[in-house]
Amino acid sequence: MAGGAVVNTSGGKDYPGRLTIFVFFTCVVAATGGLIFGYDIGISGGVTSMNPFLKKFFPEVYNKKQMKGSANQYCKYDNQLLQTFTSSLYLAALVSSFFAATVTRVVGRKWSMFTGGLTFLIGAALNGAAENIAMLIVGRILLGVGVGFANQVMTSTYNTPLR
């Protein structure tokens, strides 16, 4: 049954594995990869509709948003630069996850996670200090590289020791 609501324990294999503290924390760390995406979707969706943000970085969108009489709210946010800002993280995460697999094989998971975390930190700092759209987009791309590395390393099927 979908969802695992009913479990049939007869005829199954008995594996000697058990839930240890290491397994538990590994699962928690792996789950945070998905939280990064969810957090970004919530934050970027909220920020891109804030008037001070739109005034500073996307004045054309801000002016469309302030116009009275427009029936369709979604047409107000129809701006290619705003779409580039929003989608750059996801595209960078997709592309970097392909490269992260090779990096992980060469240098190990520990250094891949460190690289992803460092690029995420630099991207967050760049977005926080952004003065123009170029800084925002470069920051989002670095955030995407960090997210792509983190998700690939956490979901990696390689059974290599941390080094």
Automatic annotation (TrEMBL):
Record's subcellular location: Membrane
Q: Which GO terms describe its cellular component?
A: membrane
Q: Which Gene3D superfamilies match?
A: MFS general substrate transporter like domains (1.20.1250.20)
What main location does UniProt list?
A: membrane
Give the stretches traversing the membrane. 19-39, 89-108, 120-143
Top-level taxon of origin: Eukaryota
Task: State the membrane topology.
Answer: Multi-pass membrane protein
- What GO MF terms are annotated? carbohydrate transmembrane transporter activity; symporter activity
Per the database record, which ranges form the Major facilitator superfamily (MFS) profile domain? 26-163
Per the record, the similarity remark reads: Belongs to the major facilitator superfamily. Sugar transporter (TC 2.A.1.1) family.
Indicate what this protein is called per its UniProt record. Major facilitator superfamily (MFS) profile domain-containing protein
Q: Which organism is it from?
A: Aegilops tauschii subsp. strangulata (Goatgrass)
